[in-house]
Amino acid sequence: MILESFQIGEGQRPTVLLHGFLGTGRNLRSLATAWSEADKSRRFLLVDMTGHGASPRLPPGATLSTVAGDVLETARAAGLQGPLEMVGHSLGGRVSLAASLRSPAEVASVTLLDISPSPIPTSQSESGKVMELLLTAPTSAPDRKAMRAELTGRGLSGPLADWLVMNLESNPEGGVRWRFDRESLAEFHGRVNGENLWAALERPGAKVRCIRGGRAHYVTDADLARMEALGHPVATLPEAGHFVHVDAPDALLRWLLS
């Protein structure tokens, strides 16, 4: 399945950036732009993963490997040549690991932005809690401002509500509606959070690195120790939360370039 995507940079080093749950490729545009300016050798592909943004909806029973296959197919259709360097935030990192398991020869390396290969307990999933609230929101609204009010009225913060309403589109019947299928995304999220992806770090020749937010909890100290024992470096941005590319963009870029 070919997904919605766009490119930044004109280099020959193919780098795929994958957003987190409920996001789109646009979420990583600022990171890609700054990285491209600092490293002209790279060509970045930013994808709306399956079920997100302007890409097709998730098929029934979709797994991380399903989405990874769509990403790999999209990269080839976009003209990226050679093994891909994959960089993913949250869900995007887990999809990147799944891609390295699905097709090891096509993935040169994986960079995880605040996410672990371990199964994610439901109690620790911030995106799961957001999804639960999102399911209670109306299907449509007169405009973005009205939908934002619906979300904040359910307890979501203003910045989070602003981020979510980016997923609204014009409704042919008037007003706006959600671009994505909330029910299929909720079902997918609940299922794939339990996937164990440590095999991607344990396979011979695997090249993985991770950076975590010091105020986040997705990458535990035990995860860090296990990754480093396998030879995969982990760095911590003390003042950043889960959205490391938003909370500490300059520090993140320095690490990516190192």
UniProtKB/TrEMBL annotation:
<protein>
    <submittedName>
        <fullName>Alpha/beta hydrolase</fullName>
    </submittedName>
</protein>
<dbReference type="InterPro" id="IPR000073">
    <property type="entry name" value="AB_hydrolase_1"/>
</dbReference>
<dbReference type="GO" id="GO:0016787">
    <property type="term" value="F:hydrolase activity"/>
</dbReference>
<dbReference type="InterPro" id="IPR029058">
    <property type="entry name" value="AB_hydrolase_fold"/>
</dbReference>
<comment type="similarity">
    <text>Belongs to the peptidase S33 family.</text>
</comment>
<dbReference type="InterPro" id="IPR051601">
    <property type="entry name" value="Serine_prot/Carboxylest_S33"/>
</dbReference>
<keyword id="KW-0378">Hydrolase</keyword>
<dbReference type="Pfam" id="PF00561">
    <property type="entry name" value="Abhydrolase_1"/>
</dbReference>
<feature type="domain" description="AB hydrolase-1">
    <location>
        <begin position="16"/>
        <end position="120"/>
    </location>
</feature>
